[in-house]
Design a protein that fits this description.
With 232 residues, the chain is α/β, with parallel strands linked by helices. It has two domains: 115 residues, Response regulator (Rossmann fold, 3-Layer(aba) Sandwich), CATH 3.40.50; 91 residues, Winged helix-like DNA-binding domain superfamily/Winged helix DNA-binding domain (Arc Repressor Mutant, subunit A), CATH 1.10.10.10. The strands form three sheets. It has a five-stranded parallel sheet, sandwiched between helices. The longest helix has 13 residues. The protein binds calcium ion. The site of calcium ion has 5 residues, from loops.
Length: 232
Amino acid sequence: MHRILIAEDEARIAAFVERGLRTHGFVTSVVTDGLSAYDHARTGGWDLLILDLGLPACDGFSVLRKLREARVTIPVVILTARNSVSDVVAGLEGGADDYIPKPFSFEELMARVRVRLRTEPSYEPTVLRAGNIALDLRTRRVHVDDRMAELSAREFALAEVFLRHPDQVLTREQLLSRVWGFDYDPGSNIVDVYVRYLRRKLGADLVETIRGVGYRLRATAPTPPARLNSRS
Ligand code: CA
């Protein structure tokens, strides 16, 4: 079981990240300032550090520099609102392994974390399947029967959430937070728009609308209507 340290002073974001990681079976702890981040990260008790740059007491860049100076090799994924090119370069040159600008979606964060841990959790398959759809999480390719479908990153993330929860009703809010992140307007109809894209690309019957609630992936193809004998 992997242990992930989250250094984030914004309670809402820390809770969002922590809840999601725990759902995926990670052990987590949150620290809210740079000095605690450094103290905890250097103990060796953590497999990965998610590091906000704007932290009280000691900013994320300084935490990172001190860790690397102390030859602490823990993988570090920087999470920050400072998304200018110079920050990205400074973060990576400072020894960060990856960089995610806010706002971010949880699926995106998970993908980066998995890469940095260089392991797929053993209980997680690499290829998710439902009906005639196969979603390869490693190559990010999607097949419908033998045909490859072209999905955008967002469409892929949405398809992944559906395939991870076959036959389960997912509300628009759940889909918004899993795919678009915490910053999205809950009144947005973007989920409906993307479900339409998926139906167009992966099959009209794949995702069922549950009126007033949300959507459900049909794990098995619907039974074709019985053939009617023309004389009866
Ligand atoms: Ca901050």
